[in-house]
Amino acid sequence: MTDEAEIPEDHPRHDSLVTRHRIEDGVDRGITSRQGLIAQGRGEAFDYLLGEQTIPRADDAERAAAAALLLADHPVLSVNGNVAALVPEELVEIADAVDADLEVNLFNRTEERMAAIADHLREHGAEDVKGLAADAEIPGLSHERAKVDQDGIYEADVVLVPLEDGDRAEALGEMDKTEIVIDLNPLSRSAQVASIPIVDNAVRAVPGITSHARNLADADAATLREIVDEFDADAALAAAEDAIRGGELE
Ligand code: PTJ
Description:
The protein is an alpha/beta fold. The chain has one domain: Rossmann fold. It has eleven helices and eight strands. The chain has helices spanning about 15-30, 35-50, 55-70, 80-85, 90-100, 110-125, 165-175, 190-195, 200-215, 220-230, 235-245; strands at about 75-80, 100-105, 130, 135, 145-150, 160, 180, 195-200. The chain has a six-stranded parallel β-sheet with strand order 3-2-1-6-7-8, with helices on both faces. A two-stranded antiparallel sheet has the order 4-5. Helix 1 runs antiparallel to helix 2 (about 35-50), helix 3 crosses helix 10 and helix 5 runs parallel beside helix 9 (about 200-215). The mean pLDDT is about 95. The structure holds ligand PTJ.
């Protein structure tokens, strides 16, 4: 397997190759599920049609997400096997920027993967990683994603959910949480039910939110509230769908 450092910087598909390499490496290390490879391929297709860039409406969504996380009493960033492999350091940075907890929550949950992901996050600087206690359940979900920590996702008021299937997104919405979803498919159920859908690649969206959070660090609550209230989820989804369906690639 090619080492990430060996991918030439000037290769026209450099970023995409690095991303693939990270997911592949994640599978080898027991962090990412094999289904994660399929999810990655699906995401790549949407990203290609978006021109592999953060469209302006997605940047607005990242700013609104930063504002919502800064306003939250108890924000939690949910981590699965794909984002753990793709952006471990950036997850620790965003948690630090908005003072949020990191919680591992998996669809294909095994104790081995939970531990491997928690260790991986700690190796990248995380101090406290939640999800291992699993002492609470999200009501109405029959699969493993229902298992959460009482003092983590269960009690959170704002949850950042990067790429996943739609069931939990819907169930969290029913618990009245503000839900921020990162998903390259604007038609996915997760994106459709999110309070703030971010149609962008997680490798750009996570640092994008952090950068906005740092810029907004001194903003007062009224300003942050205004940013969240002005954000229009339907318009953001429509802009992404338009870009994907009608986009003109250079
Ligand atoms: O680690 P686990 O066990 O929790 O499993 C995680 C996966 C992602 C395998 C699981 O949640 C799954 O099967 O998800 P889906 O149903 O394949 O949905 C993944 C969604 O994420 C799809 O809409 C993809 O387009 C999108 N996606 C894939 N890669 C990225 C992405 N969105 C943003 N950034 C990406 N890098």
